Structure formats: C-alpha cells, structure tokens
Amino acid sequence: MEEEEEIFESNLQQQHAVEELNFDTYLSSLHTYLGDVEDTRHRTAFLDAASVCNLPLFSLPGVVLFPGATLPLRVVEPPSVAAVERALAQVDVPYTIGVIRIHWDTTNRRMKSASIGTTAEIRQYGRLADGSLNVVTRGQQRFRLRRCWTDAEGVPYGEIQITDEDVPLRTPRDAFGKLVPLSNRSRSHAISHMLSSRAFWPQWVYHMFDSYCLAERAADMWKQIVGAPSMDSLVKKPDALSFYIASKIPVSESTRQELLDIDGITYRLRREIELLASIDLIRCKICQTIIAKRSDMLVMSNEGPLGAYVNLGGYVHEIMTLNKADGITPVGPSATEYSWFPGYAWTIAKCATCRTQLGWLFSATKRKLKPSSFWGIRSSQVAEEIRRNR
Question: Domain CULT spans what residues (predicted)?
Fold first, then answer.
C-alpha cells in the first residue's frame, strides 16, 4: 500500500509538471545544435542472426546504446572521421558502425571494453569546414564483440557477431488446467494427473514468462512513474518495449550495460520491472549524496527522460532530466551556445559535497518558456542502485 501511494504521488507530480511544460520536446530529439546535417536516405536491412562481420568501431565511455535509441556523434579525431567515411563507403554493411561501452576497470587500472554492443545506422551527417563530422545514428542490433584492432591507418575495427534474439512468448489461452484438490484424490493419482495435464502450474507462473503480460506490466509501471503517453503500440512489441525502457530508465551506466547484456525478452522485462519497483533514490556516484527521487524525472525530449547528447569537443553524455534536484550547485556563467535544448542556457552543475561535475542546470532564456529551469544529470555519475526496503 505504501509503494502504491508513492507511485500515485509520483504520478500526480508528473502530471503537474506536464501541465506547466510548454517546451516542444520534439526539438531536443532533432539535435539541432549539430547544425546542418543531411539525411543519408538509406535504411540498412537487418543483418542475419549469428552472422559475423567487421565494422568500424566506436568505443565510447559512459554510453550504452540500445536498439531503437538515437546516438549523436561529433567526430573530431582523424581516425574516427576515417571510421565514419569507411562506414559510408563499405559495400557489405553500408552506413553501419559498431558502438561499444568502455569504462575504467578499477581492479586492473585500465580501460575495459564491454563484450556486448549495438550496431548503429548512420542516418544523418554533415561535414564541417575543419574536416570534422556531425553524425546522427540509430541503434539497430545487439552484437557480441569477438575481437578489436586498429588498422594500418589508425581506424578502429571490431569483429562482431550479431545476437540471435528470441521471439516474444505468449502463454496459450488454454494452458491453465484445472487441478482436482489433493484431498479428493489419492496423492499418486493427483501427481499422475498433473504430469499428464498440459499445464499444472498456477497462472501467475506462466505470466512470469509471458512476454506480452510482462510488457503490459512494465508499460503500466513506466507510465505511472514517468507520466509517459500511451505505450499501446510498444506493448504489442515486447522486444522493442524492453529496449525502450532499458534505454530510458534512470539507472547507472553499469546497470544499463547489464540490461543490454541480458539475452531474452522475458528476462530483460522481468529485470526492468524489478528495477522500476525498487529504485527510488538517485545518488552521486562518488559520495552517495542523494540528488533526487525517481518522481523528479521530467520528460524534455519526445524520446524519453534519458537520452544521449554530444558536446562541441565530441564527448557523448547520456543525461537524465529532472524537474528538481538537491545537493547540486551551479558553477560559473551560463551559456546558450551549443545548447541541447533550444531556448535554454546551460550552466555546469557540481555535487555540493564532493564537487564532482554531475551535469548541468538548464535555464529558460524567455520568461514564458516552461519549465523555467531543469537539471540534466549524467548517468555516468549516478551511483549503483540502492533498493528500497519493502
């Protein structure tokens, strides 16, 4: 009952936030700060499951790309520019790169690459006068990284194997057999009856493995917490829904990688339901200071409350947007140049306790623009999840 009240309160707060918001969330999903980019007008066919191929590889710190998610890139370094040009020109897998997360391994004190990544289709790109590229990509298929190397010209490559994804499962309508109580029959006869029945487990057991039932449950929880619009179309596609929630849920990057690593729609949805039911507080990764609650999430993009954006130097940040936050201090002057959210100026924001840069404060440059301000918190600076006591 207590959890239901918290979710109800969260939903009311989100509805209140939506009523005050007049910002066009479609604008932020266009990544207009990248300037003029051309549509490649090319849509890559999906690669065969279990197929192996070599792709130009982008190893990105703090970024976990999921199928269906948008990833903008500001490609500055010559080897990376060459990697994009190779991808645009390659014949066997055109307009496609591989994206994999890298992170600092504290045990071995070196950068370590994840084993599971996602192919990304180049959908838009533009070349600047200095030779750098602005690129917008979209996640396509999961893959396992078999090996990686740098060729003679310094271009990073990876040998990948496309993941053989399962299909959504639905429990047959007539799968639930009626069991005769043990008190009315002998134990041996009852066991024989159960073994010969098409189904002898309770209905809730089957729902644990029914992709569509799990999708409905996850979508309902997501809508209650985030206040998102109808997700009926995604519920009909449990695989797409599982990737959508995984790409938007406000958790640490390591937990997001865990979700990407999971094989099986059912298992991914069950893990997401567990996270949605248990996660309440968002904390600083370094000092564990409480930054916000999940009820503070604010949707400032039509792609959801968490998305990827790239700065002028080419560093990609995955940020979650919040309507309020505690323990964070804006530092320095505000700027409108290269703002990810048109109409808002950004100011660097640091943890008031440990002074780690957690993200940015975005402030409206026009009085009538709502919300007047909000926070963008880097998922790479969010602590591992602490589950609520039940």
Answer: 279-386
Domain coverage including residue 54: 36-162
**CB neighbours of 203 closer than 8 A, spacing ≥ 6?**
176
d(CA 74, CA 84): 11
301-317: burial string, b at 16+ Cβ within 10 Å, e else: bebbbbbbbbeeeeebb
Q: Can you tell me the distance from the alpha carbon of 190 to that of 179, in angstroms, rounded to the nearest whole number?
A: 8
- With CA atoms as reference, report the closest residue to 385 among 208, 258, 247: 258
Tokens of 347: 């100011």
pLDDT category, 280, cuts 50, 70, 90? confident
Distances (CA, A) of 353 to 272, 283, 284, 332: 31, 12, 9, 17
- Strands in 205-356 per DSSP E: 281-283, 290-293, 306-310, 316-322, 328-335, 344-351
Residues 63 and 18 both lie in one domain: no
Global pTM reads: 0.85
The per-residue pLDDT for 13 is 47
Cα–Cα distance between 296 and 130 in angstroms, integer? 41
Domain holding 350: CATH number? Answer: 2.170.150.20
Chain-centroid distance, C-alpha 75: 22
Rg (CA), the chain: 23
Round to whole Å and give the CA distance between 378 and 346: 14
3-state secondary structure of 31: coil
Q: For position 64, which CATH number holds?
A: 2.30.130.40
The count of structural domains within the chain is 3
Q: Is the pLDDT of residue 176 over 60?
A: no
The number of beta carbons lying within 10 Å of the beta carbon of residue 158 is 23
Q: Is 365 a residue whose pLDDT tops 90?
A: yes
6-43 pLDDT per residue, tens = 443 444 444 444 447 899 999 999 999 999 999 987 76
Look at the alpha carbons of 223, 137, 71, 254 in this order and tell me if their dihedral is positive or negative.
positive
Flag whether 361 is in a domain.
Answer: yes
